[in-house]
Design a protein that fits this description.
Number of domains: 5
CATH topology of the largest domain: Nucleotidyltransferase, domain 5
Number of strands: 18
Strand content: 15-25%
Largest sheet: 7 strands, mixed
CATH superfamily of the largest domain: UvrC, RNAse H endonuclease domain
Helix content: 40-55%
Shape: elongated
CATH class of the largest domain: Alpha Beta
Distance between the termini: 70 Å
Radius of gyration: 36 Å
CATH architecture of the largest domain: 2-Layer Sandwich
Length: about 600
């Protein structure tokens, strides 16, 4: 049976790759797992019965808390799971042995460096790329490197003196084109280093040059009728195109580093911490700070760094942070990366902090809906450049077909939610034909003239569904009523979701994902729906009425009575003469019955 806490955590889990950690009632880490889809994977533990696996059933029964870390891909989840299991060795995880560790590609620290895969990480100045979760892909990249940039595979000591002394002879690798024989001076050290630099770029993920070259080789082989060779290139190309050359969360060149990121709002700050050792993430945590004295982000991050490093006994000399720090310490280096592997680590940390913030705020707002309302209204006030929160918003929309049955609708939002009891329909009185501008001018004037006459409070924002023409018409009415400038008014154009203010030539563009634009779109769509519903009702009634008017001897009052009782022309047609007689009398009932019999 899930506790309310676990239900809430599972419900808020994202459907993205990551790792999850299960803790018991005493806060002891019991299990670490990976997932392509965190929500589905974690939820599966609690929806299945686990009759066949008693160990899993015991694990599930002891889960009291769940923590998770987001990553970019399933491979990253696999690698992070591997490093954390080795670090913490949870009770319910399989114990990972050293000989099961993932392989790296090593560029040896030597003259004319060799490039090979290894599971051993030796601190001798060599560069290691990886680890690689898929051995086939690792060997594919090595094969591609061999084709593009032939490098030596021997372990000879290619010192300058040995080469000058002609101690070596070319081998079979040179004969078959896999090596350019630097051992006998056929390839210079400078030329070899250029190839090594290009190989490093490929191993860092810049594989565009490789795929382009493979496509050329594949085309050439096909043109020369060497179809087996072309198929081989195609296979390598497809493998490479689906390949992530290395994990975005692991790089052996990053040794002892602490990574901190922070996101904040008016009340809270959320900090994520990643501890990296020997190129592997070995610790992750996200936590919340509640502001008390309007502390700055820098002050909050300084406090977090001090507390977390003390908690985890960190001795890392380098700390990666999202912005420059005023804190000075001769023993510490604060790095604000702009590019490269450390920037990717910082981005990963920021991704987790942002999600944690969203999750926590959602939980708070469910318990206290007023918090969400206040936040949205504050955001709208900022985005729309208003002087007060738009607690009361009204939106107008016109509807007609070729100028017939023109109507307009006014919908009202209060506290960012529809207030349907305040919705109003308008049957246009002074406009003939399809004239949106004149219709908008009429209904806006009528709406606010009545509100002024009845001494009602005016809205904090008026939204006009349409472009500059409709907006200008609404402004004319507001000026006639003497309230222009007292109530903000804007127009929203459907095509590009542009927002227009009166007397402002340039439109206002708001982030497509912002809650402000979503509220404006919602109220616009609601006005359109409400207006169309009224227009359709009026049009249908007009159509029904005109059809019944064709019956000689049946007047307007009789038609209203029939529609009031039977609701539709279809039911009037199907009604017996006895039923019609009860409604309108025998003589009129006979006229209606005879009309539909013809």
């Amino acid at each position: 049976m899930q506790s309310p806490k676990l239900k809430s955590i599972i419900k808020s889990l994202p459907e993205t790759p990551g790792i999850y950690k299960y803790f018991d009632g005493e806060g002891v880490l019991m299990y670490i797992g990976k997932a392509k889809n965190l929500k589905k994977r974690v939820n599966s533990y609690f929806t299945k019965t686990h009759h066949e696996n008693r160990k899993t059933a015991v694990l599930v029964s002891k889960i009291c808390d769940i923590q998770f870390t987001l990553v970019d891909t399933e491979i990253d989840a696999l690698l992070l799971e591997n490093s954390l299991i080795k670090k913490f060795q949870p009770k319910f995880n399989i114990n990972l042995k050293d000989d099961k560790t993932y392989p790296f590609i090593c560029i040896k620290n030597e003259r004319f460096p060799r490039i090979f895969f290894t599971r051993q990480h030796i601190d001798d100045g060599s560069e290691y790329f990886g680890p690689y979760a898929n051995g086939m892909m690792m060997h594919t990249i090595l094969d591609v490197i061999k084709v593009l940039f032939p490098v030596r595979t021997c372990n000879l000591n290619l010192s300058e003196a040995n080469i000058k002394a002609q101690k070596f002879k070319v081998c079979l690798e040179y004969q078959i084109g896999n090596c350019k024989a630097p051992c006998v001076g056929f390839q210079s050290e400078e030329d070899y280093e250029i190839a090594v630099k290009q190989i490093k770029q490929i191993l860092r993920g810049n594989i565009g040059v490789v795929t382009k070259h493979l496509k050329t080789l594949m085309t050439e082989a096909a043109n020369e009728m060497q179809f087996e060779k072309a198929a081989s290139y195609k296979y390598k190309l497809s493998t490479l195109e689906n390949y992530q050359s290395r994990s975005t969360i692991v790089n052996s060149s990053i040794h002892e580093v602490d990574v901190f990121s922070l996101v904040s709002d008016e009340r809270f700050a959320f900090v994520n911490y990643l501890k990296v050792a020997n190129g592997m993430i070995i610790q992750t945590q996200t936590f919340e700070l509640r502001k008390k004295l309007d502390e700055s982000d820098e002050e909050l991050l300084e406090l977090s760094i001090a507390e977390v490093r003390e908690q985890y006994k960190s001795t890392s000399k380098e700390i990666v942070v999202p912005f420059e720090m005023g804190l000075k310490d001769d023993e510490l280096i604060f790095t604000v990366p702009k590019l490269g592997d450390k920037k990717k680590l910082l981005d990963l940390s920021m991704k987790n902090a942002l999600y944690y913030k969203k999750d926590k705020l959602d939980q708070y707002e469910k318990l206290n809906p007023e918090l969400k309302t206040d936040r949205i209204l504050s955001q709208m006030m900022s985005d729309l450049r208003l002087t007060e929160p738009p607690v009361h918003i009204e939106c107008f929309d016109n509807s007609n077909i070729m100028g017939t049955y023109p109507v307009s609708a006014c919908v009202v939002f209060k506290n960012a939610k529809p207030s349907k009891k305040d919705y109003r329909h308008f049957n246009v009185k002074t406009v003939i034909g399809a004239n949106d501008f004149a219709t908008m001018k009429e209904v806006v004037y009528r709406r606010y003239k009545r509100m002024l006459d009845e001494n009602e409070s005016l809205p904090n924002l008026i939204v006009i569904d349409g472009g500059k023409g409709q907006l200008s018409s609404a402004v004319e009415s507001l000026k006639e009523l003497g309230i222009y400038g007292k109530v903000p008014v804007l127009g929203i154009a459907k095509r590009l979701e542009e927002l227009f203010y009166p007397e402002d030539e340039l439109p206002l563009y708001i982030d497509k994902k912002s809650e402000t634009l979503k509220i404006i779109q919602q109220i616009r769509d609601e006005a359109h729906r409400f207006g169309i519903t009224h227009h359709r009702s009026k049009r249908d009634k007009g159509t029904l009425k005109s059809e019944l008017e064709e019956i000689k001897g049946i007047g307007e009052e009789t038609i209203k009575l029939l529609l009031s009782e039977l609701k539709s022309v279809k039911k009037i047609k199907e009604a017996s003469i006895e039923m019609l007689t009860q409604i309108v009398g025998h003589s009129k009932a006979k006229l209606i019955s005879d009309h539909y019999k013809k």
